[in-house]
UniProtKB/TrEMBL annotation:
It comes from the Eukaryota. The chain crosses the membrane at residues 80-104, 125-150, 178-208, 247-268, 280-300, 359-382. This is AAEL004817-PA. Keywords: Membrane, Transmembrane, Transmembrane helix. It comes from Aedes aegypti (Yellowfever mosquito). The keyword Cell membrane does not apply. The lineage of its organism: Eukaryota, Metazoa, Ecdysozoa, Arthropoda, Hexapoda.
């Protein structure tokens, strides 16, 4: 009897590895027995004979099969949601960005830059602001690379603690250095793609804001005729449509990816708070803040552009209350500008949705409130005992 049980344990142990590695098709046939028996016997003569309680083999096999299926589903979901979907989102944003910036019609950006520099009263300030965007992107990239460097080169146990990474201790020191360098370089280019796409979107939003503000100032100062102003607004709407229909597509993919990274990092941060060193915990907090900045940057730029578009609707009312500036303009033209400006409905869009500053601030407020509440109730959130 003990030999039979030992054979079944050995069979299940061998097939667990086969199912995990190659699937159910490689299962060996089980030992040829019908039932496993568990005998409960005593040696006292006052008690009856030994009682035999048959336990079907299918019960134990069903339990093991359920555990195997649970492990397979866990590994499959981990592979899909941690590796495949984020990689596809990043690849999709990269491919769409390459197509838009390299192969699609890109004269809109050149035309926008020319118009903005012509309308701008202080071109030097405009150039400085553009350089500030580039410097901020470079600083974000440097911070992300420094985080990866500190975790991989200074704290090797972080790589050794990766799931499915059981052969880290078996590698030579040279091979470990190669793995660290390859990881740092690949993540550097991974973040570089995001910085280029998101900073380009932010720059275009800023140029559109400057273009719209310049047109508004010229109309109020009467340095442009109302008819020409309406023509320029039509050109602006074409550029805005190009931003919403094409430029925002890779930004939306990367924003979704970055937000998922940020929220998942927060969850893992609270779970590993007691197990990781304080220095690594501080690095992780800084990294979460970096992902938060790069995630919300495109939304705030779009919200700022939407606010500028809303202010353009008041241009008709502003010139109507300035009779001395537009005293040579006929009332018919003033009424035309008033009706045209009031009917404008322009906004920056991400995920095909208008981005409004009020709703964005409300979402950020709710997110921060939920994060603070979760941090205050940390012992309940991770299943700890409340003293």
């Amino acid at each position: 009897m003990n030999q039979t049980v030992t054979e079944h344990k050995k069979w299940m142990s061998n097939n667990l590895h086969k199912i995990r590695d190659r699937g159910f098709s490689t299962l060996d046939p089980p030992p040829a027995i019908g039932e496993l028996s568990h005998q409960i016997s005593t040696t006292n003569d006052d008690f009856p004979a030994p009682v035999t309680t048959p336990v079907p083999t299918s019960v134990g096999f069903a339990t093991v099969s359920g555990s195997i299926m649970k492990t397979i589903m866990l590994n499959t979901s981990e592979m899909i949601f941690i590796y495949i979907i984020p990689a596809l989102l990043h690849l999709g944003g990269f491919v769409i960005g390459i197509y838009i910036y390299r192969f699609a019609d890109n004269e809109h950006l050149q035309c926008l830059i020319e118009k903005v520099f012509i309308l701008c009263n202080v071109p030097r300030r405009l150039v400085v602001t553009l350089w500030v965007y580039f410097i901020l992107g470079a600083l974000w990239l440097a911070g992300s690379t420094a985080y990866v460097y500190l975790l991989t080169l200074k704290h090797s146990y972080v790589i050794a603690s990766f799931p499915r990474w059981n052969s880290w201790d078996e590698l030579d020191p040279t091979e470990r250095d190669y793995v660290r360098i390859f990881l740092c370089v690949s993540l550097f280019f991974h973040d570089l793609v995001q910085v280029v796409i998101i900073i380009s979107y932010s720059l275009m939003c800023y140029l559109l804001r400057c273009y719209l503000v310049g047109l508004k100032e010229k109309l109020l100062l009467h340095t442009i005729e109302p008819l020409n102003w309406m023509r320029e607004i039509c050109e602006f709407r074409k550029l805005l449509h190009h931003l919403n229909a094409k430029i925002s597509l890779p930004v939306a993919c990367l924003a979704l990816l970055n937000l998922s990274y940020m929220f998942s990092s927060v969850v893992h941060l609270f779970q590993d708070m007691n197990s990781c060193p304080i220095r690594v915990f501080s690095y992780t907090v800084a990294n979460v803040l970096l992902w938060l900045v790069i995630s919300l940057m495109s939304f705030f730029q779009a919200a700022s552009l939407t606010a500028s578009c809303r202010q353009t609707q008041t241009c008709g009312h502003l010139i109507s209350i300035r009779p001395f500036v537009h005293r040579n303009t006929s009332s018919e033209d003033l009424n035309t500008v008033l009706l045209y400006a009031s009917s404008l409905n322009m906004s920056a869009k991400l995920f095909r949705m208008p981005i409004n500053a009020h709703y964005l601030c409300f979402v950020v407020f709710v997110s921060i409130l939920a994060l603070l509440t979760f941090g205050m109730c940390l012992s309940l959130a991770i299943g700890g005992d409340v003293p």
